[in-house]
Amino acid sequence: MAPLPEHTASSSSLTASQTTGPQPNSTADIIFADTTATIHLFIVDVGAMPIYSNDGNHSSSLFEPSFIVAQPGDTVVFRFHGPYALYRSGTQDPCHAPRLSQNSVTAKGTVSSYQVPVTSWEPVWFSASLSDNSYQCDNQTIFGLNVGGDSLSHS
User: Fold this and answer.
1) Domain of 67, in residue numbers
2) Domain of residue 35, CATH code
3) Does 10 fall in a domain?
4) How far is 109 from 68, CA to CA, in rounded Å?
5) Residue 17 domain-assigned?
6) Does residue 136 lie within any of the structural domains?
7) Cis peptide leading into 117, omega within 30 of 0?
8) Where is the composition biased (Low complexity) (predicted)?
9) What is the mean pLDDT of each run of 10 residues along the chain (155 residues)?
10) What is the pLDDT of residue 56?
11) pTM higher than 0.90 for the full model?
12) Is 94 exposed, middle or buried (0-12, 13-18, 19+ CB in 10 A)?
């Protein structure tokens, strides 16, 4: 059987480039829309996978995903898989920031959350640590919102 016209062979090329600023390329997990507004909701899991595990497998970040690009009016929801404290800062020093939330130990299977409205295109850094441990911040414990193409070079 001959292929249908829309399934004929084609070729394309892909060119990589370094982004220099925020690009609206992240896909929202949930989209609410009506005739007056569209709201994008981005879900970021904190501590869903251990950074290091006993079997040698590890995640590259405490946050999943480790960065997103969102536009003003969108909302980021951090879902905490454990008793984590969340911190927020600017680009100058993402590891020294005031605490935003303190999430207590929840019942097994329960996930607490914290919502952050996106108010501008300005880069914002977040970090997290277990509430009962001393505060630790490095490339694996930070999250970037609208940080451009080199999200981990500022930590």
Assistant:
1) 22-145
2) 2.60.40
3) no
4) 26
5) no
6) yes
7) no
8) 8-20
9) 37 31 62 83 87 57 90 93 82 66 61 91 88 67 80 43
10) 57
11) no
12) buried
